[in-house]
Amino acid sequence: MTTLENNGRLTYAYAVLRRGARPPAGLVGIGEAPVHTVAEGRLAALVSAVPAAEFDQPQVRERLEDLAWLEATARAHRRVVDEAAAEVGVLPLRLVTVYHDEDSVRAALVAHAERFGRLLARLDGRLEWGVKAYAQATEGRPAAGHEPAARRPAAEAETGREFLRRRLRDRKVKDSARQEADGLARTVHDTLTQAAEDSRLHRPQDPKLAEAVAASGAADGDGHAPAGSRAAVVRGPNLLNGAYLVRREEAGAFAERVGELAARSPALRIELTGPWAPYSFTDLPDEAP
Amino acid sequence: MSYPASGAGSGASLADILERVLDRGVVIVGDIRINLLDIELLTIKLRLIVASVERAEQMGIDWWRDDPSLSAGARRREVDRENREKNREQHELARENAELRERIAALEGGRDALEDRKEESP
Q1: Partners of A46 in the beta sheet?
Q2: Is A212 close to B49, i.e. CB distance below 8 A?
Q3: Which residue of A99, A121, A240, B36 could cross-link A185, Cys pair, CB 3.0 to 4.6 Å?
């Protein structure tokens, strides 16, 4: 084990980039540790030192289940990867890619040199944008015609059974609205796919994940406290969870296109996130020479 | 942050960040082997959710508990409630019935007594 020789430190790798690419100065990673590059051949990795006490086996497995630790680690990882990606082409590595020392990082760069080089060439100058579309809450739509108020016993509240029947009817109305919204979401995806170089459809984000995060009291990306988990409920189901690969210089035009779509589709709530490093495009098919 | 367009987006929520850094990006195995297989990721997420559902309840967000389409427990409770209601109605009717019988009996008793007295005092 090299752990002891390294003073209880391990090397955490965030992203791969081209040797000689200049990421922004002063990046700080996990635990506010300074980020630097480890170069090998034509590639380099963004790394920082992390405490072995947290990242060595088997502790790290347990740590992953600790929401506070996971959040801090994920945010630091994201910050390094995306701040670097905003200026140079990077290949984001998955969370918790940890090596005993920098020599092991170099060995990994050698081992994957061909694939990394190809992906970097393909992704150079591109950033990822996330677009999510949610069905807009339809609470304003009454189940009209079904239940004339006059037929209800005057001055008497609904019975449980009546209440539940009304809920069922409301749900049916919502279902047809949902189908309509589904179609709109597909149109949004098709339009944005044409505006982008490449796109990926991800499975809809489980609303429970967003609710869970909101309920945990975690602040959002801008450091604001979340509006509360009720907001996630009102937002309606996630109908589209797409990632779009866009040239850096075309980001403005892409965002505008998203804005237009949002304005044209009142039945949807469309959210744009980014720019992200090209996390969703590291699975590009092998282009055999 | 130095993103030219970061104000345009809604900012990255923790859910968005987790979604990206847990599920996407290049997988290369480090020396410290963490088997981030999808199943394990799912476990992490599920635990996140489970932990937070309890929290949500503590915060009084429990609407889903009482929606029969969302919760088997709520469906069961609904049936129970209907049964209880029916039972209660029947009990209520039986009680009312008994009460009326008593009152009738009392009235009849009173009338009989009255008639008896009439007969006694010609």
Answers
A1: A15, A37
A2: yes
A3: A240
